[in-house]
Amino acid sequence: MARHNTSHAAPNPPADATEYESDEQACRQVLQILALIGDKWSILVIGQLRDRTLRFGELHRAVTGISQRMLTLTLRQLERDGLLSRTAHPAVPPRVDYALTSLGTTLLDSVAALADWANAHRHEINDNRCRYDTTHPPRLPS
Amino acid sequence: MARHNTSHAAPNPPADATEYESDEQACRQVLQILALIGDKWSILVIGQLRDRTLRFGELHRAVTGISQRMLTLTLRQLERDGLLSRTAHPAVPPRVDYALTSLGTTLLDSVAALADWANAHRHEINDNRCRYDTTHPPRLPS
DNA sequence: CGGTATCCAGCCTGATACTG
DNA sequence: CAGTATCAGGCTGGATACCG
Predict the structure, then answer these.
(1) CA–CA min distance B63, chain A (Å)
(2) Which end of chain A, N or C, is less packed with Cβ atoms under 10 Å?
(3) Cα-based distances in Å from B114 to A56, A96, A142, B66
(4) B3 in a domain, yes or no?
(5) How far is A33 from chain B (nearest CA, A)?
(6) At A78, which helix (H) or strand (E)?
(7) Which positions of strand D lie within 7 Å of protein CB atoms?
(8) Are the Cβ atoms of B39 and A38 closer than 8 angstroms?
(9) Residue with CA nearest C14 C1'?
(10) Does residue A11 come out as left (phi exceeding 0), alpha (psi in the -120 to 50 range) or beta?
């Protein structure tokens, strides 16, 4: 990265460093956000909150297979990113509501487009995989 | 999953099993494809092939930081899914070209939309994270 | 050049147990 | 109810060495 430090000095770095960003850093951030999409649980959780607020336990039941630990971790991360909001009601027994923020909603919309793509092409991809697996040397140690 | 094997028999599974799909399976497939997007290297590799065919070594140099092993693995997976094509030229020294298929191109387009979203909101998200980190108990063991 | 094979450290995750 | 703490294991991915 930034491998151009051979001879002629690094050219004109912007004077005000506050506004400066290497496109590499931008790339990393984008990649990081994209990684969020690929995360096993994040979109599932977000999807559940699409049109209603849910409590912790409701989410736990709604997202099949998630452990309490992973749900907590996922929720924390999404809350940190500002994708959803956490509201703890001081009561006994405790009650915590989770809801999508507007930012989270826009993300969900964008992801929906990709999910549509995936859904539209999943048969094609499945066929490709089968063809590949039958065509290519599937390990013959015999 | 398929936890409904308690009493009243599994109801009317479609006669022609070829067309049958549980929406749960569909969900898994979509999730699996989404995971591809979140993969650290996949989109980087695909991105490099956006408008030109590249050789293995060129890709290796283009995608900064990827190990030979990971590049191979990533390429195999993408080839298996039919997202890119691999062409080995029988010559000495060997030469292998990788190119996006039309399927791969459509994926890239869809991902681009999401990347735009990520790019547009990365400052906002970064701010959210900073606020969260300063606001919330960052572990005070002192 | 374009891989494959092997080893191995680190992280992620699930299971389990406990708490306000 | 809504978490936190702890631990074991499995899988991922890097480093290295070697092959056609």
Answers:
(1) 10
(2) C
(3) 28, 30, 46, 23
(4) no
(5) 6
(6) helix A68-80
(7) 1-6, 13-17, 20
(8) yes
(9) A67
(10) beta
Residue A21 has pLDDT above 90, yes or no: no
Report pLDDT digits (tens) over A39-70.
999 999 999 999 999 999 999 999 999 999 99
Strand order in the sheet with B54-55: B54-55, B95-100, B84-89
Nearest to B37 among A1, A38, A80 (CB): A38
Taking residue B105's Cβ as centre, other Cβ atoms within 10 Å add up to: 17
> What pLDDT, in 10s, does the model give residues B52-98?
999 999 999 999 999 999 999 999 999 999 999 999 999 999 999 99
Total domain count, chain B = 1
The three-state secondary structure class of A76 is helix
Let me know if residue A79 belongs to a domain: yes
Boundaries of domain holding A95: 23-134
Q: Peptide bond preceding A141: is omega within 30 degrees of 0, i.e. cis?
A: no
pLDDT at residue number A24: 81
The CATH number of residue A83's host domain is 1.10.10.10
Tell whether A11 is covered by a domain: no
What's the average model confidence in pLDDT over A90-112? 96
